[in-house]
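Question (not urgent): is this output format expected?
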Amino acid sequence: MLDWNDLRFVLETARNGGTSGAARVLGVNHATVARRITAAEEALGERLFDRLPSGYVPTEAGREAVRTAEAMERLDSELDLKIAARDDRIKGRLRVTAPQLFIQRVLGGILAEFTEAYPEVDLELVATNDTLNLAQREADVAIRFSKDPPETLVGRRFMDQKGAVYATPELIARDLGGEAPLDWVKFAHWPGPPAEIKAVRPNLRVRLTVDDMAAAIGAVRAGIGATRMACFLGDTDPALVRVPGMPRFDYLPLWLLTHADLRHVPRIRTFMDFTAARLGKLRPVFEGDAP
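Got this back:
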C-alpha cells in the first residue's frame, strides 16, 4: 500500500532536482528522502526517478505521481483555509511575515502591545522579504512594501512612504557643499540613485557596493558614504542625518495583506485592525514629516 505521505518526498525531490534540496525543504536528511522515494516506488511498482549524476529526473510514472501530489497539496491547502475560516476565536496560531528592518524599527513594539492585549493568540513571526504562499498557510498576514502585491491576497495599500539620503554628521561636515564628489554606498541590484538625487549631486563617488539594506545602513554608520533609504529607517537612526539639499522621493507603499479565505477570521481581522491603528499614528515617520 502506498503511504500518501511518501508523495510529499516525491514532489519536493522533483521540484528541487534531487534529494538534498528536498531534504532542506522538508527538514530531514537526504537518506530519509531517498528511502521514502524507494518506498513509494515499491508500493507503486514503478521507477519514479532516473538517478543521474546531474540529479533526480522524474520518469513518466514519476511525473504522474508529481501531478497527483500537487493535487493533494492543493486540496490540503483548501481544506486548511476552509477550516481556519470557521474559527471564530481570538486565540490560536497567527503567523505574520514582515521585513527584518521593519520588525526591528517599527513592528516589534506593536507586537509587544498585541501579545499583551491578546495573550491567547500564539503569535509566530517570519522575518523575510521573500514571497510566501499564504494559500498554503506559510503565513496568515503579510506586511510588505510593494508596488503590486499578488492578486490572490486581499488587504489594503495602507500608506505611501518617502525616502531620503542619509549619512553621518561627520561625513556631512567634510562635504564641501556639493563641490566635491559625495562618497556613496551603492546597491548592487539597483540601477543607481533616483533622478532626483542625480539632479542635485551628479558627482557621486561609489566607495562600496552592497546587496542588502542592513549592510548599507552599517556602511553608512561607519562613515563610508551616504546612501538612500526609507525615511522610517533613516529618521529613526540616531547615528544618521539627512544630507542637506537632497530631496525626498517616493518609496514603495506599505501593504497589510492576508488570503481572501482568511480575511474574516477574528484573530486575523483583529490583528490587522490593531496593527493598522498603530501604524496610522506613525504616518509622519513613513512620509518623512516626523521631527
